[in-house]
Write a structure and sequence with these properties.
By secondary structure, the chain is α+β, with helices and mostly antiparallel strands. 49% of the residues lie in helices and 16% in strands.
Length: 307
């Protein structure tokens, strides 16, 4: 099946990397969250390409070989040739049996020689193996694309100008170790976050566009303040699990409040591994929201249409 496992600083980054690698949209895949991001841990997800019915798409199609029809010439072959073939086959079988017996004897001799090896040499080999394991790194770090320094400067300059126009005094801390421009706004003014992070999302979108247009290169930009992104993502995961439990308990659909695209993705990703509910988005921006449905709801709806 068409499947890929990808990582990212956040769940949405890992999903975005997987969709780019598979070359499909989010509606064409089934998303499983393998690992949530932590202090020293990156998010890990598994994306599986599915069809319209939600079944995994096979990567390769088996080719069925057709049997060739028997011609008249083959039917008219004399029985003598068949006898000759059977005799040749029996001779070959005898030769193969003899070769196998010889190989078995050789293997027995090799095993006997191995048993005679001194135990001191084996101990030395074990100590060498232990030393190599201790010196070897636990994990090989994945290669991270280098971020253009010009784009970093453009993003910082643009964001600082926006904050000054908003009369917000703040300092900017940047990090490019994850292959993206991660900017932390250090300030005591909570206006930089806004209701449900709306101001923070707007600053992130504008800064990303400024950085991309400045050097005509695609770049991921993440703008955060006081760890709001991680806190919001944790609360959304908790909300998704709580509402899914309510949906299963009552057997009715649960409609969540309007959310932006990023927050909806967290809800979909969190419940993608839940076998008792399905999720979908309804409405138009900015009032588009996630709806959680029990799986039997779809079957019941289909039966009512047939009746």
């Amino acid at each position: 099946m068409k499947q890929v496992e990808t990582t990212g600083k956040k769940v949405e980054d890992a999903i975005e990397n997987g969709l780019r690698e598979l070359g499909v949209s989010q509606s064409e895949v089934n998303i499983e969250i393998l690992t949530l991001p932590g202090l020293f841990r990156r998010a890990k997800v598994r994306l599986t390409v599915v069809d319209e019915d939600g079944n995994p798409v096979e990567d390769k199609v088996a080719v069925v070989k057709e049997e060739k029809p028997v011609t008249k010439k083959e039917e008219e072959k004399p029985a003598v040739k068949k006898q000759e073939k059977t005799e040749v086959k029996t001779e070959k079988k005898v030769e193969k049996i003899e070769v196998k017996e010889v190989k078995k004897e050789v293997k027995k001799e090799i095993k006997a020689e191995k048993k005679e090896v001194k135990p001191e040499i084996k101990k030395e080999q074990k100590t060498v193996i232990k030393e190599v394991k201790e010196e070897a790194p636990a994990e090989i770090p994945a290669e991270v694309k280098k971020v253009d320094e010009k784009q970093v400067e453009i993003a910082k300059t643009y964001l600082s100008k926006l904050l000054s126009l908003m009369n917000i005094s703040a300092t900017l801390e940047t990090d490019t170790t994850h292959g993206s421009i991660d900017i932390d706004i250090v300030t005591e003014d909570t206006a930089v976050i806004g209701h449900r992070g709306e101001v923070l999302d707007a600053l992130q979108i504008l800064t990303k566009r400024a950085a991309e247009e400045g050097e005509d290169k695609f770049i991921r930009v993440n703008v955060d303040s006081k760890g709001y992104r991680v806190k919001r993502e944790t609360s959304l995961v908790s909300l998704a699990e709580k509402m899914a439990a309510k949906c299963i308990r009552t057997g009715r659909k649960v409609v969540l409040e309007p959310m932006n695209n990023t927050h909806r993705k967290v809800i979909h990703a969190t419940l993608s591994s839940n076998n008792k509910v399905i999720t979908k988005s309804e409405g138009r921006e900015p009032n588009r929201r996630v709806v959680i449905l029990p799986k039997r709801y779809r079957q019941h709806k289909a039966e009512n249409k047939e009746n």
